[in-house]
Write a structure and sequence with these properties.
Layout (H helix, E strand, L loop, with lengths): L10 H11 L4 E4 L5 E6 L6 H8 L4 E9 L9 E9 L2 E8 L11 E2 L9 H11 L3 E2 L24 H7 L4 H9 L9 H4 L28 H5 L33
Parallel strand pairs: 2-5, 6-7
Antiparallel strand pairs: 1-2, 3-4, 4-5
Helix pairs in contact: 1-2
Length: about 260
């Protein structure tokens, strides 16, 4: 097996994507020779051209939405569509924001070509408030209709919550979002905590002096053998008396 990655480009798939979008895919590989194609589009509208070209020639595996940068205040997001086409793994990404105004852009549904995109697109609509146009059944899957769309984007990630249990970072963000000035916040958030002094707990232990196992025996101990106790004799219970045998004769009458 080679130790360096090899790139085995699927020329038929490459030309198909180039003809449909006018953009060339970037190809990579691994040490086993598996080809990976990466197609980065500059507008969501071109997604329909890719879906139409891949229909019947590829299989949609899943769809993921992600932010370009972690903790991005502008929430510049992209959507990645993961396909299997022949022997290649294809990932198509589209931006869902305007590069100048940073406003969110609508995304066309690809359910007319890939029906299994149904649930992924509905999740994007209800949890992240991504506008999907042309979806045949834009109903919510999990969240109650009374909840705001995109509520998952307003929740605190679990990693930040767990980190906040051991630091002041999370609470500083909460107080800042509420508009509380720094001087009015809790002193514990501004003053570094003193280190905790650990005092070992000492438990008294009672010590008994061990017997002197190396004591030298005396002459009397050697000459006089130890008397062994006689074993106790077991007492047998007395046998029960046998009942008298019954006779068929009547007892003789006493003479007067």
């Amino acid at each position: 097996m080679p130790s360096t990655p090899t790139i085995n480009r699927n020329d038929a798939l490459h030309q198909l994507l180039k003809k449909a979008t006018g953009t060339e895919a970037v190809w990579t590989g691994d040490v086993r020779g598996n080809p990976f194609a990466w197609l980065r589009l500059d507008a969501p509208d071109k997604l329909k051209d890719v879906a139409g070209a891949l229909a019947g020639k590829a299989r949609l595996c899943t769809i993921t939405a992600y932010a370009e940068e972690r903790d991005d205040p502008d929430k510049r997001r992209r959507i990645a569509y993961h396909f299997v086409a022949g022997n290649a793994l294809l990932t198509v990404t589209i931006p869902i924001f305007d590069p100048e105004s940073l406003q969110p852009l609508p995304v066309p549904s690809i359910t007319p070509w890939f029906l299994n995109a149904d649930w992924n697109e509905r999740e994007f609509m209800e949890m992240f408030n991504i506008e999907i146009t042309g979806h045949p059944n834009p109903k919510r899957l999990f969240l109650d209709e009374r909840l705001d769309a995109g509520i998952m984007s307003n929740l605190i990630p679990f990693s930040a919550m767990a980190h906040g249990a051991a630091s002041n970072t999370l609470w500083e963000q909460v107080l800042e979002a509420k508009g509380i000035p720094v001087e009015e916040r809790m002193p514990s958030l501004n003053v570094p905590a003193e280190p905790i002094k650990l005092v070992p707990k000492v438990t008294p232990v009672s010590v008994t002096e061990p017997k002197d196992e190396l004591a030298v025996p005396t002459l009397a101990d050697v000459a006089a053998p130890a008397k062994e106790a006689a074993p106790a004799q077991e007492t047998q219970p007395a046998p029960a008396p046998k009942p008298a045998a019954k006779s068929g004769k009547k007892p003789a009458a006493k003479k007067k």
